[in-house]
UniProtKB/TrEMBL annotation:
Residues reported in the UniProt entry to bind ATP: K128
Alphabetical list of SUPFAM superfamilies matching this protein: Protein kinase-like (PK-like)
Gene3D superfamilies: Phosphorylase Kinase, domain 1, Transferase(Phosphotransferase) domain 1
Biased composition (Polar residues): 397-407
The protein's name: Protein kinase domain-containing protein
Location of the Protein kinase domain: 100-347
Membrane disposition: Single-pass membrane protein
UniProt region (Disordered), positions on chain: 395-417
Record GO biological process: response to stress
Record keywords, A-Z: ATP-binding, Glycoprotein, Kinase, Membrane, Nucleotide-binding, Repeat, Serine/threonine-protein kinase, Signal, Transferase, Transmembrane, Transmembrane helix
Segments passing through the bilayer: 40-61
Length: 417
């Protein structure tokens, strides 16, 4: 009996042991599980939170982008419909300009007279009354309206509206109070108002305006008639590129053109455009180069010159006396570094080789950053008066300015007369 009990105990105790061990193991597992679940909580939860936050921010970004796109779309629709709503009544313009009276005349361009006007709400306007024989047809007119209505940049003149009534074709622009750049740069008295700092800012502003036309506006636009009289100055002397009557609308990859009708002013025209009617953004770059040299030197690049301005500047550059180009009134106070860089840029833009001319994006970069190394310029085209005569080209210099309607508003200095 005792033996049996002992045997039983012996036989029970391994079972108990097993159960105990099992319990211990389970307890161990449970503890381990608890520990690992704690670990999981510590690692996974923040990860999940981060992922959720990331997803949320991505969704927010997507939403705001879609919203922005939506606004843009609305803006586009607005713009298109506003071309119609930009239409002015002829009587409104007639009253605003006091019946197009002479005292309100601002000047005359190739396409007609320009008048100053005041709308009933007090807003100043400039009205371009296109002459009937301007050669500008209804399509060109609408082209200019559509182009300008779409373009908005601080260095471009804004279009407020247009008027088409009977034979009358009018464009209504924002009034830019300080007239055109040529009236300062080439005027023996007013030129003293443009110190180097102002001229440098003007060069930068024109470059940014052109860059916008070439690359940033939705449609690539080639200005084709960039010159000092087409740069207007606002009350703070910020330059504004005006008059897009000859600009053409391009889809972005259609960057080059060929035309039998050359529209432009010869002193500023690239050789490939003047001689073969070929234009590209690089034709504007060429004109910009000429303009920069005019702003620095105060000299007009017209047909009366023995040697054209580009060739003259190039010769001085080669002789190492480029700084002599600078207009005498500037000599007392200017930044040698800035003037040299601008002459360099002017010569790069005026190179005969179209490919070597920089883009306006490069020009803006060159003006803004001295860490950008400029390539050495190569020769400008042989554009001397002799060659012009040889080619039978005459300088087209239409455009007169009358100052009776616009006494310059000068920000902080007055012109001594
Ligand atoms: N928005 C404006 N605000 C103030 N003045 C203006 C405005 N637009 C033109 N003018 C004045 O009228 C003049 C003639 O301008 P317009 O654009 O018709 O011809 P242009 O630029 O002189 O010559 P072109 O027709 O050959 O380009 C300008 O030089 C300028 O003095």
């Amino acid at each position: 009996m005792l033996c049996l009990t002992k045997l039983c105990r012996r036989s029970v105790s391994p079972v108990n042991n097993l159960i105990r061990r099992k319990r211990i193991t389970e307890l161990g597992y449970a503890r381990q599980r608890k520990k690992s679940s704690k670990k999981i909580v510590i690692i996974v939860v923040p990860t999940v939170i981060v992922v959720v936050l990331l997803l949320l921010s991505m969704i927010t970004i997507c939403f705001s982008l879609r919203k922005k796109k939506g606004i843009d779309t609305v803006k586009n629709v607005d713009e298109i419909s506003s071309v119609e709503s930009l239409q002015f009544n002829f009587d409104t313009v007639r009253v605003a300009t006091e019946d197009f009276c002479d005292s309100n005349k601002l000047g005359e361009g190739g396409f007609g007279l320009v008048y100053k006007g005041k709308l009933s709400d007090g807003k100043d306007i400039a009205v371009k009354r296109l002459s009937r024989n301007s050669g500008q047809g209804i399509e060109e007119f609408k082209n200019e309206v559509l182009l300008l209505a779409k373009l908005q940049h601080r260095n471009l003149v804004r279009l407020f509206g247009f008027c088409l009534e009977g034979d009358e074709k009018l464009l209504i622009y924002e009034f830019v109070p300080n007239a055109s750049l040529d009236q300062f740069v080439f005027d023996p008295i007013k030129r003293s108002y443009l110190d180097w700092e102002r001229r440098y800012k003007i060069i930068g502003g024109i470059a940014r305006g052109l860059l916008y036309l070439h690359e940033d506006s939705r449609d690539r636009i080639i200005r084709r008639d960039l010159k000092a009289s087409n740069i207007l100055l606002d009350a703070q002397m910020n330059p504004k590129i005006s008059d897009f009557g000859v600009a053409r609308l391009f889809v972005v990859d259609q960057t080059q053109g060929n035309t039998s009708r050359v529209v432009g002013t010869y002193g500023y025209m690239s050789p490939e455009y003047a001689m073969h009617g070929q234009f590209s953004v690089k034709s504007d770059v060429f004109s910009f180069g000429v303009l920069v040299l005019e702003i620095i030197s105060g000299q007009k690049n017209n047909s009366e010159r023995v040697e054209d301005l580009l060739s003259y500047a190039w010769r001085q550059w080669e002789e190492g006396i480029a700084l002599e180009l600078i207009e005498p009134t500037l000599r007392e106070c200017y930044s040698r570094k800035e003037v040299m860089r601008c002459i360099h840029i002017g010569l790069l833009c005026g190179q005969e080789d179209v490919v070597r001319r920089p883009t306006m994006a490069s020009v803006v970069l060159m003006l803004n950053s001295y860490s950008v190394t400029l390539p050495l310029p190569t020769a400008p085209p042989l554009f001397a008066s002799s060659r012009r005569k040889e080619l039978g080209l005459t300088t087209v210099e239409h455009g007169t300015n009358t100052t009776n309607a616009s006494q310059p508003i000068l920000p902080d200095r007055s012109i001594s007369s």
